[in-house]
Amino acid sequence: MVYAVVRAGGRQEKVEVGSIITVNRVAGDAKGKLELPAVLLVDGDQVTTDAAKLAKVKVTAEVLDDLRGPKIVIQRYKNKTGYKSRQGHRQDLTRLKVTGIK
């Protein structure tokens, strides 16, 4: 079983070939291909964490679609002063499918 831990969209994700992950918005090339930097690689019983060896590892992914996350509501309230504030936010996300770990 081969899997890798990659740095994608500000977080680290455990991926295998064929897995679909949702990360913060990243841009691929014109064909929708993307290469993710590996932090850890597990190939059977071998675990690779050496930075020099991981520089040679290529984790490729393709962009499936861009989407928006769920709406979160930010509310601030101060007692006895009449101050209240309300704000909403939706994060920009990208759905990726991992196509290869070499």
UniProtKB/TrEMBL annotation:
Full protein name: Large ribosomal subunit protein bL21
GO annotations of cellular component type: cytoplasm; ribonucleoprotein complex; ribosome
Transmembrane portions of the chain: none
GO molecular function: rRNA binding; structural constituent of ribosome
Family: Belongs to the bacterial ribosomal protein bL21 family.
Stored Pfam families: Ribosomal_L21p
Known partners and oligomeric status: Part of the 50S ribosomal subunit. Contacts protein L20.
GO annotation, biological process: translation
Described function: This protein binds to 23S rRNA in the presence of protein L20.
Organism name: Leucobacter edaphi
UniProt xrefs under HAMAP family: Ribosomal_bL21
Gene name of the encoded protein: rplU
Alphabetical UniProt keywords: Ribonucleoprotein, Ribosomal protein, RNA-binding, rRNA-binding
